[in-house]
Amino acid sequence: MKLGLVGAGAIARSQHLPVIDEHPNVDLVAVATRDGTVDGVPIYGSLGEMLAAHEDIEAVSLCVPPVPRFELAREAIAKGRHVFLEKPPGTTLSEAKTLADAADEADVVLFASWHSRYAPAVETLKTRLEHTTIKTVRVTWKEDVRQWHPGQTWIWQPGGFGVFDPGINALSILTHVLPSFRLVSS
Questions:
Q1: Per-residue pLDDT, 163
Q2: What is the C-alpha separation between 79 and 108, in angstroms, rounded?
Q3: pLDDT in tens, 89-113
Q4: Which end of the chain is more exposed for a tag (fewer CB within 10 A), N or C?
Q5: CA dihedral 47, 52, 56, 59 (to 10 degrees)
Q6: Mean pLDDT value across residues 159-174
Q7: pLDDT in the model for residue 165
Q8: 97 catalytic residue (yes or no)
Q9: 3-class DSSP state of 144
Q10: For position 158, what pLDDT does the model report?
Q11: Orientation of helix 120-129 relative to helix 164-177, angle to 10°
Q12: CA proximity to 12, closest of 49, 82, 65, 48
């Protein structure tokens, strides 16, 4: 698969690029980023420029903050590209629904990365809970957003999700291991 990457920040460098580099069926064709470089790959200032220069790109991976991600995903879907989103899939439920509907209409794949859900212990937990009656769930999440987003100011800006970014990881695990569990605030 010919892939275009949008965003070349910390998450792209620490998580996406190493996996892309090791995957035998994925070829990173180009990168769209406001700043930064990726060795051996052409860099463009926007998704539109990148797609215009590389019509062979089949999918894009959007490694950008939540607010600009929505319009980028809509643009990629409208141009017939499959889209991989970082979490969360939108800043609102209506954004996520709009993207899902657009992807269905364009017959492309839209995939949101709920990466914590893929931790090895999660499936074990899900299996153990399958035939268990759960009455109450309490989540104590101690992930330090500063560890995973060091020096990144976007996360503290409006629309950056701040401490909710790591909280999303807890919710993604919870909704996977207990898919029918009703979330209630106390």
A1: 59
A2: 10
A3: 888 889 999 999 999 999 999 998 8
A4: C
A5: 20
A6: 72
A7: 64
A8: no
A9: coil
A10: 72
A11: 40
A12: 65
